Every structure is written in structure tokens, then in C-alpha cells.
Amino acid sequence: MDIETLAPLLTGPGSAVLVLLGVIFGVYRVTVRYLVPMVSRIADRHLAVCDALIDKIGNIDRSIGIIDHRLKRIESALPMSIIGAQALTKNGPGCI
């Protein structure tokens, strides 16, 4: 094969394949070098925020449980003549 028959192949489909391989390699390098670490850092920060939120929810839940327990002890200690029969029940006066 001489240069006159190879030139159209190298400037047409051959160069297109080389350009495509170069672009694919560039996208791969950018993805591996920049995007994967960036997504990893974003995911780590998100999970840290979720862990902190779960801890806060747990603390709030424990506080509500303590308050509920104390209110039940206060309710059981008060005589019914003071608070009325339905004052602290679910459907008692003052319910929203």
C-alpha cells in the first residue's frame, strides 16, 4: 500500500478512532482523578450530617421519654379531686 491509499484512511476513519480513544481516555482520567474523590467527600459529609441528626433525634426521643415518665408520676401522685377525672386523659378538657 502506498501513501495515496493510506492517506484517506488515516485522515478519515483512522483519525476519528484515535480522537475517540483520546476523548475516552481524557474522560476516564478526569472521572478517576477529580469526580470520584469529590463524590466520595460529598458522601462522607452527607453521612456525617445524617449521623449527627440521628444522634440528636435519639437525644430528643430520650428527653421526651423522661418528660413523659415524670408527667405520669406527677399525674399518679395528684389526687383525682384536684385534677378532675378527665383532666389528663387523651380526650379531656383543653385537648387540641
Describe the structure in your own words.
The protein has 96 residues and is an all-alpha fold. The chain has a domain at 34-64. 82% of the residues lie in helices and 0% in strands. The relative contact order is 0.04. The mean pLDDT is 84.
Concise overview:
With 96 residues, this protein is mainly α. It has a domain of 31 residues.
Topology:
Elements: H1 3-77, H2 80-83
List its salient traits:
mainly alpha, 96 residues
Broad shape:
rod-shaped
Order of helices and strands: HH
> How many β-strands, per DSSP?
0
Poorly predicted regions are none
Radius of gyration: 36 Å
Mean pLDDT: 84
- Number of helical stretches of at least 4 residues: 2
What amount of the residues lies in strands? under 5%
User: What is the end-to-end distance?
Assistant: 93 Å
Helix content: over 70%
Secondary-structure-based class equals mainly alpha
Major β-sheet profile:
none
